[in-house]
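Slide 14.
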Amino acid sequence: IRTELVNDSAETRDARVVSTILDPGGKEVGKAVTASVSISSGGEHALEQQIKVSNPRLWSLDQRNLYSLVT
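Slide 15: predicted structure.
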């Protein structure tokens, strides 16, 4: 998961990214939290995360299991 952050404020800001994967029923099945980063005014920063989902339900025409990523 790659998230690009942009600081549009007039001041330096600290930020972190929390990404959660939800199964088709809305249950949390994976989560990642980045360390806090400082982004200067007008600056940009990219963060990468990996989340492993154990025993995922596969998607097919008969069973349309759709997972969601909430950031």
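Speaker note: The chain has a mean pLDDT of 97.
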